[in-house]
Design goal:
This protein is mainly α. It contains 15 helices and two strands. Keywords: Repeat, Signal, TPR repeat.
């Protein structure tokens, strides 16, 4: 799709905020696809409620040899943050069907959430050995590489998922983050826009696109995107901090301060909001 694009050697460490050259400010970065809820949602539609898990347990009681039943309940456990139980269910699914590549990819995600990146990588690799055309495994492994500071490998995996005509917006969004971190904002804008077209109700791609708009000096479009991100997800600390930065750049310190404060109410440890609030505490 993007054969003319080149991806150059990346810095060793990916920042959580993008420095705007000459602005002296820090822009809140996108952390999309890093949280358990967002990732589990992409692998299964099962909900993590106690009622739903109870229903899935009843299904397993009726069909104790059905690997798919364990895979679905494992995803529900993952959504509920019950990682040991999720791992146990994926283990059972794989034992019942050693070629169950979806269960390997799902278990890989839970291993990552549990902090075991080595086991996560092993499971993604196994899923792709079983099905080299499984786009979700490329996206999951790519995100694992991205978060581990291995951008070249991450980029290759997102590219492969896109070549497979994935309908998962994470492939474009995460590739956009890599372009963005390299300062290739025109390419990043294209990828974020594609992700938005696939998932128009997701806040994160709007935040990402706003970051690149602002880096390119397009303050109005950036502001629109940050406002849309907040409208879609009022609990998005990054969106509030990004909106605050635009207010700050426009000289409206009072509104900037309120938005930074809201960001910190949502995430008291969010560094861009803390530094922004410090800059705007007077005036």
């Amino acid at each position: 799709m993007n054969g003319m694009k080149s991806y150059h050697t990346a810095p060793r460490r990916w920042p959580v905020a993008v420095a705007l050259m000459g602005a002296g400010l820090m822009l809140a970065g996108c952390q999309t696809s890093t949280g358990p809820a967002a990732q589990i949602a992409s692998i299964d539609t099962a909900q993590g409620s106690a009622e739903n898990i109870a229903s899935l347990t009843a299904v397993i009681a009726r069909s104790p040899s059905d690997p798919q039943a364990y895979n679905v309940r494992g995803s529900a456990f993952g959504k509920a943050g019950r990682y040991p139980e999720a791992i146990q269910d994926f283990d059972t699914a794989i034992r019942l069907d050693p070629n169950f590549y979806q269960a390997y990819a799902n278990r890989a995600l839970i291993w990552r959430f549990s902090g075991d990146n080595a086991k996560s990588l092993q499971d993604y690799n196994r899923a792709l050995q079983l099905n080299s055309g499984y786009d979700a495994a490329y996206i999951g492994r790519g995100n694992l590489y991205r978060l581990a500071g291995r951008p070249q490998e991450a980029f290759a995996d997102f590219e492969q998922a896109i070549k497979l005509d994935t309908t998962d917006p994470r492939a474009y969004h995460n590739r956009g983050l890599l372009y963005q971190a390299q300062g290739q904002h025109s390419f990043a804008l294209e990828d974020f826009s594609t992700a938005i077209s696939m998932a128009p109700n997701a806040a994160e791609p709007y935040n990402g696109r706003g970051v690149s708009y602002l880096a390119l000096g397009d303050e109005d479009n950036a502001f629109d995107d940050f406002n849309t991100a907040i409208k879609l997800d009022e609990a998005n600390a990054e969106g509030w901090a990004n909106q605050a930065l635009v207010y700050e750049r426009r000289g409206d310190k009072a509104r900037a301060r309120r938005s930074y404060q809201q960001s910190l109410r949502l995430d008291p440890n969010y560094a861009p909001a803390m530094s922004g609030l410090e800059r705007t505490k007077s005036g």
